[in-house]
Give the backbone structure.
Amino acid sequence: MTHDLDQIRKDISSTDQQLLQLLSNRRQLALAVADAKLAQNKPIRDQKREQELLVSLIEKGKSLDLDAQYITKIYHVIIEDSVLQQQAKVQGQLNGANGPVARVAFLGRQGSYSYWATQKYFTRRAETLIEIGCDSFNEIVQSVETGHADYAVLPIENTSSGSINEVYDLLQHTRLSIVGELTHPIEHCLLGITGTELSKIKTICAHPQVIAQCSQYLQGLSSVKIEYCDASSDAFNRVRQAQDPTVVAIGGEEGGKLYGLEVLGRSLANQKDNVSRFIVVARKAIQVDKAIPAKTTFIMYTGQQPGALVDALSVLKQHGISMGKLESRPIPGNPWEEMFYVDVYANLNDYAMTRALDELNRITRFVKVLGCYPSEDISPTLPPQS
């Protein structure tokens, strides 16, 4: 049998085009499902139905020589996209937020991690995205507070370097509300101009958070100068302008390509699964539809009396509210006193959440709700264990 490579590649391209069309068709059907679920007062996500679908697909895949792991991995992505598309549509209808244009402020310029997170989040929500790159977190927040931007995208924590304290401190004082969140996988690469040799590197340009996330890799380098940058896009630009093979940047591969840089090394982060969580803030708070899993974020000051924090957290337990995160930050001007940031899996309009906040207001010195927003923690559906 003669194998014509060119013909095989044409057949692959044709198959890929068919797959793209089918994926588009499936996404449109998923959006239609959202309307049907709302009309029947059903939650957006039905994991029992997802599991049944996955089991059926795995069984059918066996006869097509497709293994279960392959099918499961593909449908994790498809199901996550379907859920997030449905949630975005429902929220847009409820809040009138999905307009043709969104002005969004983020850290850095094209190619920064915040830039890609912004693209990822707003692709589902606006036809036109007006990008407003900023040099600092404070500038980002001010852009929205003054009306120059409609939204801001802010990184708030990372699996390698932990919480981004500067963002937490800004939330304490801003009038903005958290209206959304997303997680974004981060793969740090070493990038330089053509002809760069690893053994001759003298300077590495990167954002401080990137440096923290790659600290173990950097400890293994001797006689290398670290230059701190405002964003990964700033680091890329410095390397491009320097045109010096001894100067490199750490950042994302996609971003580096925008600046004509080549990958010299991959997977530099301290942890293999390096993921950043971003929040989206706006001037006006939103409501979250009951069909969508919600998160509420608030800050509280319990005072320094013994057991104060335990008493506050017990209120959440008594009302059956699950806590996703507890973060403490010092209160400026009050030495050794701390404010607590709390993420809970609850809708602000739920009766249990309303009662819990009422009790917290009575037993703490200060409570401020920072926002209620759709949860984008889309846990993967797995086939049942035999």
The chain has four domains: 11-95, 101-186+275-282, 189-265, 294-374. Residues 11-95 form a domain with the Chorismate Mutase Domain, subunit A fold (CATH 1.20.59.10). The longest strand covers residues 334-345.
